[in-house]
Design a protein that fits this description.
The chain has 133 residues and is of the alpha+beta class. 31% of the residues lie in helices and 23% in strands. The protein contains 5 helices and 5 strands, in the order αββαβαββαα. It has a 5-stranded mixed sheet. α2 runs parallel beside α3. The N and C termini lie far apart (36 Å).
């Protein structure tokens, strides 16, 4: 799937965000090896730590559906530059994607940047670190 098309799908997901506190809707779309697109949007809560980011929502939806290989993830928001995932989302990407998985970051003005999961979190803590390897 082309980067621009997946970013448009993320934009559709952004419209479903629940963000009454930050008023900063974010959308994500994960393209799986099975050809399906999994959508995510940020969901906030009055108890702030109980909210969830768009990126994790999309990845968790893919896993809940049985998809174990994400080929590409797109994220979009109304930011000055291409939106940047938070640290928690980057760590989850490392766990549920491969270091080579493409991540397309964009904003509503049309700016776009494509990186890999490995680019977003170099030196990531992984399963191997738990076993002293």
């Amino acid at each position: 799937m082309e980067d621009e098309l997946l970013l448009q799908e993320a934009k559709k997901a952004r419209e479903k965000a629940y963000c009454p506190y930050s008023n900063f809707p974010v959308g994500a779309a994960a393209f799986g090896e099975n050809g399906k697109i999994y959508y995510g949007c940020n969901i906030e809560n009055a108890a702030y730590p109980d909210g969830m980011c768009a990126e994790r929502t999309a990845l968790f939806s893919a896993y809940a559906d049985g998809c174990r290989l994400i080929l590409k993830l797109a994220v979009i928001a109304d930011s000055t530059g291409p939106i940047s995932p938070c640290g928690s989302c980057r760590q989850v990407m490392v766990e549920l994607c491969s270091p080579q998985t493409k991540v397309v970051l964009g904003n509503l003005s049309g700016l776009m940047k494509t990186l890999t999961v490995g680019d977003l979190l170099p030196g990531a803590f992984t399963q191997e670190d738990l076993h002293g390897k």
